[in-house]
Design brief:
By secondary structure, the protein is mainly α. It is 76% helix and 0% strand. The longest helix is centred in the C-terminal third of the chain and has 26 residues. The protein is elongated, with a radius of gyration of 19 Å. Keywords: Membrane, Transmembrane, Transmembrane helix.
Length: 166
């Protein structure tokens, strides 16, 4: 049996304002496009075997000593793209966050308290990721970390702004 909250969210999504629907569609398509291009750019890692020791942290969690290009995980390809080809991963991050915010807005738009909680939790996660996630200090990772950190701060401050919105 489906929970009534899920049914209400589905009704909201189906009968949303067409302007928000277009934004959701465009942001999702842009998210998928930038993800595809990021993974394509990151696939250069498959040819850069000396870099495997430094960039394939997630692959090393699965395989003790990866020896074939097929062993490399997609997350490692994405991180390689962040490190050396950062434009599309940054666009992917921004479009993904925008898509997420639109979904949160639709899902709980009548309850600003819940939206504040979701934004605060998301902001905290983004700040923690920006501080702990990347050990490399290339230009791409520095810019990506700064964007994660600033976005996390914005998400943390926005609940206070929502509180005063009447």
């Amino acid at each position: 049996m489906i929970h009534h909250g899920v049914i209400n969210i589905l009704k909201e999504v189906i009968f949303i304002d067409y302007k928000i629907g277009i934004q959701i569609l465009v942001s999702f398509v842009f998210f998928l496009f930038t993800l595809y291009v990021s993974l394509y750019e990151g696939s250069n890692l498959l040819l850069d075997t000396p870099e495997w020791k430094y960039t394939t942290k997630f692959t090393h969690l699965i395989y003790e000593n990866p020896s074939l290009p097929e062993d490399i995980t997609n997350i490692d390809l994405y991180l390689y793209a962040v490190k050396y080809y950062s434009f599309f991963p940054i666009m992917n991050l921004i479009s993904g966050l925008y898509f997420f915010i639109l979904l949160v807005y639709i899902g709980i738009k009548r309850n600003l308290r819940r939206m504040s909680y979701v934004l605060a939790i998301t902001g905290s996660i983004l700040i923690i990721l920006s501080l702990l996630f990347f050990s490399s200090f290339s230009i791409g990772t520095i810019i990506y970390r700064i964007i994660l950190f600033i976005t996390g701060l914005i998400f943390l401050v926005s609940p206070m702004l929502l509180k005063y919105k009447k």
